[in-house]
Write a structure and sequence with these properties.
CATH architecture: Orthogonal Bundle
Domain Transcription regulator PadR N-terminal: 22-91
Distance between the termini: 29 Å
Strand content: 5-15%
Number of domains: 1
CATH class: Mainly Alpha
Structural class: mainly alpha
Number of helices: 4
Largest sheet: 3 strands, antiparallel
Organism: Virgibacillus chiguensis
Protein name: PadR family transcriptional regulator, regulatory protein PadR
CATH superfamily: Winged helix-like DNA-binding domain superfamily/Winged helix DNA-binding domain
Radius of gyration: 18 Å
Length: 119
């Protein structure tokens, strides 16, 4: 499997979205802050510009609350924090992800046991 495999790319996008939601669950963060945090793990690494379409999608779906800071110096930053709806969606998605992984591992174990019994 290569990192360019379409399936892997789609899984990675979904996991990156979950990771972003987790990172903004308890405190407001801005885009570059998220990108920097995600770059610590190659699975979640996004280019600097690709975080913003993801954030726009979360905002359009009312999964985040946003505000702009008003610094005395420097550039203004838009901050994102998981909304109440977003926290509920995150919980549901994490549960679904866990259930899916449990089911896949159970299936893998059953297939392995069936193969062992045939030999």
């Amino acid at each position: 499997m290569t990192n360019h495999d379409r399936w892997f790319i789609q899984i990675r996008k979904g996991l990156a979205e979950l990771a972003v939601m987790i990172l903004m669950k308890d405190s407001a963060v801005y885009g570059y802050q998220l990108t920097k945090a995600l770059k610590t793990n190659p699975m979640f690494e996004l280019s600097d510009g690709s975080i913003y379409p993801l954030l726009k999608r979360l905002e359009a779906n009312q999964l985040v609350d946003t505000y702009w800071d008003n610094p005395d110096t420097g550039l203004r930053r838009k901050y994102y924090q998981l909304s109440k709806k977003g926290a509920q969606v995150l919980s549901e998605r994490l549960n679904l992800f866990q259930e899916s992984m449990d089911l896949l591992w159970k299936l893998q174990k059953e297939v392995t046991n069936d193969e062992d019994q045939k030999h």
